[in-house]
Amino acid sequence: MPRSQRNDNFIDKTFTIMADLILKMLPTSKRAKEAFAYYRDGMSAQSEGEYAEALENYYEALRLEEDPYDRSYSFYNIALIHTSNGEQQKALEYYKQALELNPRLPQALNNMAVIYHFQGEESAQKGDLETAEALFDKAAIYWKQAIRLAPDNYIEAQNWLKTTGRFNLNLV
User: Fold this and answer.
1) Model confidence over 127-150: pLDDT tens digits?
2) Interior CA angle at 44 toward 90 and 14, to 5°?
3) How many CB atoms lie within 10 A of CB 161?
4) What residue spans do the TPR repeats cover (predicted)?
5) Nearest to 79 by CA among 63, 60, 59, 103
């Protein structure tokens, strides 16, 4: 049974009914509607921490979905799951794929910056300051791109960029 038919609470059931009605009325192909249903089930599974199920749904949505913009969000959500699982390299790969299809995803840029910053912190703790600085510079590049797209967001990143002397937005 699809996840969308297993919702237990009133709000989830209401949202599912509304989404199903909208999906039926949309003038789009059966394949696109099916892709959206898998994407929606993936989001539901992900929100409940059922990451394996969510990944299956997102991969199926990617198989069916043809629209690059919509595909970018499946890649983004797959990256989120890999980030949550501590699989940073896999997450970076999926964030990059999301950005190739949709370069206006500041949240993907921010999450990449967070990963590079974390890796920089780890390198610094190990005493590898050269690698740490290179990773911090990478984090700065992605944060500046995210801030350029969403100037009112990522205040902590903006402060970090300023305090480390990396804030000049004209450099990226």
Assistant:
1) 999 999 999 999 999 999 999 999
2) 160
3) 20
4) 35-68, 35-68, 72-105, 72-105, 120-153
5) 59
